[in-house]
Design brief:
The protein is an alpha+beta fold. The protein contains four helices and 14 strands.
């Protein structure tokens, strides 16, 4: 004889149990009909059968009702799960939007700080975001977000961290490469007070060196070295390059000043100065007027 079990802790019959109850109900109905047609005292027999079937009928009804409740609960749980997934997706979208807004706020704060420090130069510059360092350990160069589409061209001076950061080395439609002033190939005409000289990159982060043209140039720790703005220069005059942090003397007695600069590969915002190389000769329009 088939054995049927109640699912402990669930309050519902298993599928096998419900199927067995159905078979029993059918057999009980057949037996009841047979007794009514063939046996004397069929009322009593029918009462006995009905009395025997009543608990099974009630159990089957309870099981069906419980099954309906279980299915309804499962359906509600599934709906809640889908709603939860939708809410999680919306939350992730809002978190991404918040992160982007915070990044933009940080960029604007940096821009405001730089504008306050160099207002006369920043006003003529294009603020751009630094994308990252050019992947070449031998170079000090950065990718910036902005190129020909924003009026950025090779040869323009780049400002950051309170002074000269470098020069636009290459520009395409949407991006550009900035060679930092600390790069070993970087050279700039510079002034220490009234004394001219050359500032060059050392290849070390945040460090430059200034070599004056004359041996009597007045240099001391803390002196500000600036651009000359002379013919052939890519930078405007009086733009800060760096401050003297040390004076070195080589074996020949030549002095050089070691400068500290904020132009490093950790920059996040830079300003591209809207100027070109100062020409070596006057424009043709001026010459035509003579």
């Amino acid at each position: 004889m088939a054995r049927y079990r109640w699912e402990a802790g669930t309050g519902a019959f298993s599928r096998g149990t419900l199927a067995g109850l159905g078979v029993l109900l059918v057999l009980g109905g057949i037996l009841l009909a047979s007794l009514e047609s063939r046996l004397p005292g069929s009322d009593a027999a029918r009462g006995a059968v009905e009395g025997g079937l009543l608990p099974l009928t009630q159990a089957a009804s309870d099981a069906a009702s419980e099954g309906t409740h279980v299915f309804s609960a499962w359906n509600d749980a599934r709906r809640l799960q889908l709603e939860n997934e939708e809410l999680q997706a919306e939350l992730a979208s809002l978190q991404n939007a918040l992160a982007a807004a915070r990044q933009r706020a940080d960029e604007l704060e940096l821009m405001i700080g730089e504008t306050d420090r160099l207002p006369e130069f920043v006003a003529q510059s294009i603020p751009v975001r630094v994308l990252g360092r050019v992947p070449d350990p031998a170079r000090h160069a950065l990718w910036i977000e902005g190129g020909l589409n924003r009026g950025i061209r090779a040869g323009q001076a780049v400002i950051a961290a309170g002074g000269l950061a470098g020069i636009v080395e290459h520009a395409n439609g949407d991006y550009a490469i900035v060679r930092l002033s600390s790069d070993e190939k970087s050279r700039w005409g510079a002034l220490a007070g009234e004394h001219r000289g050359i500032v060059s990159g050392t290849g070390r982060a945040g460090e430059l060196e200034f070599r004056p043209e004359t041996t009597d140039a007045a240099m001391e720790v803390g002196s500000l070295i600036t651009t000359t703005g002379r013919v052939g220069s890519f930078a405007p005059a009086s733009l800060p390059i760096g401050r003297v942090v040390r004076i070195d003397v080589d074996k020949s007695g030549e002095r050089r000043a070691v400068l500290e600069t904020g132009a490093t590969t950790d920059l996040e915002i830079v300003f591209v100065f809207q100027s070109e190389q100062i020409p070596f000769s006057p424009p043709l329009s001026l010459m035509a007027g003579n």
